[in-house]
Amino acid sequence: MALPFFSSTRTIPDITAVPRHIAIIMDGNGRWAKQRLMPRVMGHQRGVETVREVVKACRQMGVEYLTLFAFSSENWRRPADEVSFLMQLFMKMLEREVEKLHKNNIRLKVIGDRSRFEAELVRRIEEAEQLTAGNTSLTLTIAANYGGRWDIMQAMHALSQAHPERASAFGEEELTPYLSMPYAPEPDLFIRTGGEKRISNFLLWQLAYTELYFTDTLWPAFDRAALEEAIQSYQKRERRFGRTSEQLRGEQTTEGKQNA
Ligand code: IPE
Ligand code: IPE
Ligand code: MG
Questions:
Q1: Residue whose CA is closest, atom 1 of ligand 2?
Q2: What percent of the chain clears pLDDT 70, i.e. is strictly above it?
Q3: Separation of 25 CA from ligand 1 center, angstroms?
Q4: Mutate to test the pocket of ligand 2, among 72, 82, 215 (most ligand atoms within 8 A of CB)
């Protein structure tokens, strides 16, 4: 199967000043609300405004792919009323925002295990994806009931179903088309708001060579300026992909980005 994008462990990707793909763990909603003596869910509500602002900023800056972690496969462990609020919020977002996304030429994708979602939610997700499938300005991916381990396992399962005769003798690059985001290059920049320094089972496979950025700013307080700060930090990084600094400097004058 032809791959639209290379795997960072096989081929060194082209580096652009503005990250092509930003993946964000939107954390800190509960604490933001608590600081204001409000119920946690008000933080989620307010977090939606940050989503709008960040989507707009990414589109204007020329980011091609934005992936937002909205609900992890472990978030079902939260109190039932918070889980149900988050599901309702997701439904409302799909209802209210999809037209606007479409007008702005944004393609919407949802990744994660849909089997636990209500039928109505699944239907809306499918409709939104179909409506926006041909859009070209920004691909916005919402990770909902997503887990990095789930992603790798479902991809392994799908790959072995497609080639039962091969048992498990597969190469690394053969798995990529079956992971949840074969349509996007691996993230260039990962941002986690809210102060925690962990991946929390987000894109485990895809983050292999992503630049990681952590900020204490809580998600509802994150804004365009904070995003620009993260991108500036990214622009100062040297992305070596296993090579030395000396090699990188030499590479500017020579051809060939392929691994040896
Ligand atoms: C992130 O904010 C949103 C979701 C996980 C859905 P949190 O709800 O985790 O906020 P904190 O971390 O408790 O402050
Ligand atoms: C990660 O945040 C998941 C999302 C932002 C959707 P959590 O708040 O669930 O992560 P942990 O539990 O602090 O690791
Ligand atoms: Mg949290």
A1: 200
A2: 94
A3: 9
A4: 72
What is the model's pLDDT at position 167?
76
* pTM of the model as a whole: 0.94
Residues with CB under 6 A from ligand 2: 25-27, 69-72, 75, 196, 198, 200
Give residue for tokens 């895809």. Answer: 206
Q: Which of these, 25, 71, 89, 49, lies nearest to 223 by C-alpha position? A: 49
H/E segment holding residue 152: helix 148-162
Domains and CATH numbers, the chain: 21-259 (3.40.1180.10)
User: What per-residue confidence (pLDDT) applies to 251?
Assistant: 64
**Which of the four pLDDT bands, split at 50, 70 and 90, describes residue 46?**
very high
Which of 59, 30, 35 has its CA nearest to residue 45? Answer: 30
**CA 204 – CA 25 distance, rounded (Å):** 13
- Per-residue pLDDT tens for 58-71? 999 999 999 999 99
